[in-house]
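Input.
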Amino acid sequence: MKPKTLQNSSTCVGPPSTIQSHPLTKKQYLALESFSNLPASLRELTYSAWLNTPSLQALYTDPLPPARIANILDPLPPTCTDSLVTYSLLAPNQTTNEFLTPILAAYLSTLLTPPPDPRKQRPFVTECEICQRTWIPLTFHHLIPRGVHEKVLKRGWHTEDQLENVAWLCRACHSFVHRIASLDELAKEFYTIEKLLGREDVRRFGEWVGKVRWKAK
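Output.
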């Protein structure tokens, strides 16, 4: 049997053109089929949400107790088991729950692991996140400016664990970012590198300065 595609799945998502032109591999299809049928709170779980939501902390622990694992996996539709059997992934006498339990445990363990301190990631950063120059010194830009941290927490714009998120920028791009928005605007609207790059003026500046070849003295 040929691997199924997302187009044939009852959990079909995305525009038809995308689905038709990108058939899924066997592993991708099986992952999508099982993941799409997990509880929404688990599918959408992030470390920040878990850290700041007591009900999620009560619901998802590491490790999960057997009863909770059963509550998550038992409602999966029979098609998940059918797919595992079709692709000969189940060992003799192995149940679907037994097959998926270590996968679920690894997934949850990864989600509940605190992310590394962004400020300590400099050794792994190779370029400015805006202009992509690799040969120039970098500085860290607080995506939520330190000058408004107290206001951010008081007004509930972000949670405390997000305050130290940074982007690694060259001095030119760092200065440009602080010219185009106030501290409040940066904190409320442009608190990720993706949101900054969503601005046309930021992209244009990055493209221009990226062509400049001088180095800092």
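The longest strand covers residues 138-142.
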